[in-house]
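Lecture notes, unit on protein representations.

Consider one protein chain, 341 amino acids long.
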Amino acid sequence: MKSLLAKAGAVLLAAPLALVVVQGAPQSTTAGGLAHNAAFVARAHAAFTKYMSAHANAIVPKNEWVSPTDEATAAKAANGTVTSLPSINWSGFADVESSTTTLSSVSGTWRMPYVQCLPHPYQNQDAFLANWVGLDGATNGTVEQLGSAVQCYEDVEFYYVWYEMFPAGTVEEGTAACINNNTDCPQPGDEISASVTVTPGTSGNNDYVLALTDHTRPQESFSTSQTCAATTCLDQSAEWILERPAFSLPFGFQILPLADYRDTGFQSAHETSGGHAGSIGSFQDGPIYNIDMQDDSTSYYLDCVGQRAPIGSLLTVSPNQCPLVGPGHHGQFYALWDSSF
């Protein structure tokens, strides 16, 4: 996993991104008929876990790369301000704390978005959208995160709740019926709230509680307790993110298409820093990054934070057609899909 501001850019200078095309074998059964087929569901869930477990931090386009030397200066100069930071696979907000302050919680609420799978001839290609909240990952190599996700697998939609203590793999949660048969799953419109809370533990470890509540379908709710060495999980940043998986292979980063979603975002996006609770960036202790997702050529946006209505054409990067916005009341913000890849 690469740092948002430094290491990812270095990798991109050496190797281009490539789009992963996941083309399934021709099926004699319709997609609708496969939706609850146990073998088909198992393949879809295995693909979800594989790609989500391997996903990288936010990958910064190489022309926006900030060197490790400049990173501290940029962060110091930008305390309390909202700064644009484009990414290939993340959008949303990240609040980075100063070197002397750590975060003890992050939380947010959202509704699972409606999606439309890719049209012909891409209908058998995987597409993803994950909504999550987490600690770390913006400037270091761990992420303590959880959320919901939508996967289009061979033209069938799958909905998930999950958590991850990166670099450990993604753990799928939810009912056995959802995991095994794609029934009794989270659905579009479900109201989700999630939080990560950290407290000092023993033997040099910190204790994390990752809790998610599906207020519409309580059976999908879960809570898990995890530990991480205090020297490894540094609690330096908080994130409220929409993501498409991007992962590292020997010849460079690979990315999956962003599922076509209706507008989504976060409400009640809160954090606790230095013992003080508030919404995104309310402590003025470090830079707040507005992250917009770009295609891998950095020519146009895949989605745009602050955009509330489709404009009918691609939003181009030059001139910049994606507004630089800060989070609204109680940390609320929205994003809207523009393109899958």
